[in-house]
Specification:
258 residues, mainly alpha, 2 domains, 13 helices, elongated
């Protein structure tokens, strides 16, 4: 852990939670120099990723490069811990929707003209492009199992909107999202949660700050989305995730998470 005096160079008295070196600590990078205000490595990182970016991770709006870097690294750990839950959420959803496509249309739903006309321009173009790429790769072994893995989360989100209510969901969501059905939720509820989780996924994918955007709530929403499809899978993901452990151990006391 960096000396507490160096963490207070701009007047912020940040207290490390642990006395031993933090896994997020800049000191853990194994290079400290005898500079009065900053270590050489903190200055180098600040220059590399930019001071305005690092300043986003300040406590109480007061910038301290060493402190901000430790919070930045903690944010990276949080983002990494979301990868597995989001992985299962996206795959669970697209497979559940694939099931609806098969049941309501056919195994070659991507050729159905009514379906194609319902897609908005962006998603139709996306589907056609991915389909052409898969046909070039697979030739006669083409299957929608390959196709769905290449279509992005936004495509599957789109298929739960109102425009597909009659074509895909006229018989309800019971067979695709059984646990949402048991809670008397409707397609609109499922669609809203898919959109929330997808937007959170995009925030992480674009390397934005998540530590102060209520990651605990977002984790529960991600688990809930998986649970809509399968309770056992949701329970497994929760048990294997280290997100809450990382969240419970910020580099400093008083770091705001909401």
């Amino acid at each position: 852990m960096l000396p507490s005096s160096s963490l207070a160079t701009v007047g912020v008295q940040a207290q490390p939670i642990r006395n031993s070196p933090s896994q997020y600590a800049v000191g853990g990078l194994k290079r400290q120099d005898k500079m009065s205000t900053k270590s050489v490595i903190v200055l180098a990182v600040e220059t590399t990723i930019s001071k305005p970016r690092l300043a986003r991770f300040s406590m109480k709006g007061l910038y301290n490069s060493e402190q901000s870097l430790e919070i930045y690294l903690w944010n990276c750990r949080l983002s990494a811990e979301f990868l597995m839950p989001l992985h299962f959420a996206e795959i669970s959803i697209r497979n559940a929707i694939q099931k609806a496509l098969h049941n309501r249309l056919s195994d070659v739903w991507y050729n159905d003209q009514t379906f194609l006309k319902l897609l908005d321009t962006k998603q139709r173009s996306h589907l056609i492009l991915i389909l052409e790429q898969e046909k070039d790769r697979r030739h006669h072994s083409m299957s929608d199992d390959y196709l769905i893995s290449d279509l992005d989360f936004g495509f599957w989100d789109h298929l739960t909107t109102k425009r597909f209510a009659r074509l895909l969901w006229s018989k309800g969501i019971k067979h695709n999202f059984p646990n949402a059905y048991k809670r008397n939720l409707r397609l609109g509820d499922v669609s809203a949660l898919i959109q929330t989780v997808r937007q959170w996924r995009n925030r992480i994918a674009h390397h934005r700050a998540i530590f102060d955007k209520d990651p605990a709530k977002k984790f529960e929403q991600t688990i809930s989305l998986i649970h809509y499809v399968c309770a056992d899978t949701a329970a497994m993901v929760r048990s294997q995730s280290g997100l809450l452990d990382v969240l419970a151990n910020p580099p400093f006391e008083g770091v705001r998470t909401q």
